[in-house]
């Protein structure tokens, strides 16, 4: 592949490096020029373009990324369609991610043009979450390089999502004088919540004296009827022959490992009894905050073997939190459940509809209802906590069309300056406790409340950390849901720059959600509006 200035007479088949305009026609970046395109550019006085010229043995970026992704062997992972030289791979189930790091390193060593990035080894993932991405950096890459990557992929499974299993768990809590029943009750609630995200169940509890014989008897009983036994000691393990490890051995079990290099979580005990796993939980497992117990539990519930060597190798990255108040007990505030993450909708309705030649497209009637009201009603019918409508052009008419709806109006007096001003006006009205804001265009009649809910569900599944974008047949579209971490960047936007710029510039994970044709249908022109069933109003 050759890259650089190309005379327009030689540009047929070349791939544009930058968006280029020929009169009223605009060619996007990465567009492959055809004969008619070249003629239009010449007619507009364009003498050369900066472009990539592919050699005979080159593969375009999408074709190369798709071939590499297709060559990979994996489990419980969905391969998304290639777009802009990228193929994203998403979890088909909740579970623990495992990856052959040597294969990833080998692929990335073939050539800088070909990259594969994944989540960390043993990362806990939720269904729908992106776990890996294949990216071709230039517009094309030699087929011989893709061949090398395919040979590496043929050597075995490159990564997998090991799905969680709905296990049953019996719990033992030992008791010493002074231990409050409320503490034990809270421990049960926290444990039940931990198991719920796997579909697991806490089936039985035994409260025993903090003595080896009593714990051994209870462990034997619970191991008989459950997939796993978890023991919470009233006193933390202070020696490897202390009550919990000694009780496991007294019951006829084996200690796999006592102690782990993860803080909080140092005092975990892992053993086996009658073919079942027995975990002596560290004291921090009484709290919902992530700790070493979660690392071991996740892997066991996903059906992965956890050895003494595995636990010994958890030290790098095992410092999960600073504890300046030690030896005071840790009681961190509860984090909101992912299902409760709050999302507000920012509906952009400030534009001038300049391509309509006069009428305001947002006031066009669809089934007798103004388009802006139809869109706002669908936003209000979604799982979003609030809907903020940004007004500007013909603000009074737009407000009138929204009469009676429970929306918040954000007026943008600077709407003529471009899209950025409307984004900033809308984001400024988002609730302080909202985890994200979904940017909804007012002129997309095909987007339903259910579509909006699909984006919100994906955002919540990501823990509120990812950008979520509607797509259609692998092509990005709208709406776009931005996490709060991008709000400060929105405040710095200028001119006609929108959310797409932020998605590309900030480097966050992007989850594409297929919602159908509605993601790509807007009504910028009279023809498009009428074709979608709208009737313009003067």
UniProtKB/TrEMBL annotation:
<keyword id="KW-0460">Magnesium</keyword>
<dbReference type="Pfam" id="PF12804">
    <property type="entry name" value="NTP_transf_3"/>
</dbReference>
<feature type="domain" description="MobA-like NTP transferase">
    <location>
        <begin position="346"/>
        <end position="505"/>
    </location>
</feature>
<protein>
    <submittedName>
        <fullName>Molybdopterin-binding/glycosyltransferase family 2 protein</fullName>
    </submittedName>
</protein>
<dbReference type="InterPro" id="IPR036425">
    <property type="entry name" value="MoaB/Mog-like_dom_sf"/>
</dbReference>
<dbReference type="InterPro" id="IPR012184">
    <property type="entry name" value="Bifunc_Mopterin-bd"/>
</dbReference>
<dbReference type="InterPro" id="IPR029044">
    <property type="entry name" value="Nucleotide-diphossugar_trans"/>
</dbReference>
<dbReference type="InterPro" id="IPR025877">
    <property type="entry name" value="MobA-like_NTP_Trfase"/>
</dbReference>
